[in-house]
Design goal:
single chain; 41 residues; mainly beta; three-stranded antiparallel beta sheet; globular
Length: 41
């Protein structure tokens, strides 16, 4: 369900587009992750 995933410094943002665009700030991911156009799964 993850539409987009990108990191900004040490902050990870996960955007999901189910009905409305919802961006969730997550700090449980490594800061070396790169932008994913789609869900990595």
């Amino acid at each position: 369900m993850v539409q987009g995933m990108w990191h900004e410094g040490t902050r990870i943002y996960i955007c999901s587009l189910s009905r409305t665009q919802i961006c969730v700030l997550t700090l449980h991911f490594p800061s070396n992750m790169r932008h994913y156009p789609q869900s990595p799964q």
